[in-house]
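REQUEST FORM: STRUCTURE PREDICTION
Request ID: SP-0412
Submitted by: Lab K.M.
Chain count: 1
Length (residues): 234
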Amino acid sequence: MSGIANYCACRVAILILLLTPLSAAQTQESDNAKGKPNKFSRGVDYFFNYLNMAGARKASDFQPLSQEERTQLYLKTLVNPLSYIKAGLSEGIDHWKDKPEEWEQGASGYGKRFANILGQDSIRRATEFGLGSALHEDNRYFNSGRKGLWSRTVYAVESSILARRDDGSRTFSFSQVGGVAAGAFLSRLWQPPSQQSLGDGAVSFGITRGSNTAFSVVKEFLPDLARAIKKNPK
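STATUS: Completed
RESULT:
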């Protein structure tokens, strides 16, 4: 279990490292609204509106997606550069730990591990898109707008397993959880013997679910980090 905990902690660290620069970009966006020079405004639009990575939208601003909008959002995630960066960093952890050991080290092993993570992520996204479209589930993250550390943390954790329906109500996200399960278990088909058991799939599912939950918490509080940077510029 300690190995799983360390793995999750590494993934959370990766997410924070990837998202911290975005918080600075959001600060630049606020400066631009006040008439200050902002050379990052286009980057802010890209990261926060196009990728919706850090809770830039508020729950009170929710509007249901049309199927065309849902499809466009899915297609954009397929070319999301942060997904490849995240995959590369996650793969680096597996490569360093020599997991699975059948793939060994070197360029060949690195490529196999990288393709494995991208494959799992692709299955997850495709399943989430398909189920989300059929069930009218919206898994975008919306900032709670709440006050209080505990209340906001609970909201963020809940958001990792809940989706919004077209009327704005939140319900269990079959598409989000199902997507993670599909990626974790279907990837056993190309894994080496040491990683092909249902138990291995369950471990992979748990790790991904854990990192997604941590990611939700990061997205909830990242805008606060941006405001703190603005109040205390270097």
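NOTES: The longest strand covers residues 162-164.
Reviewed by: T.R.
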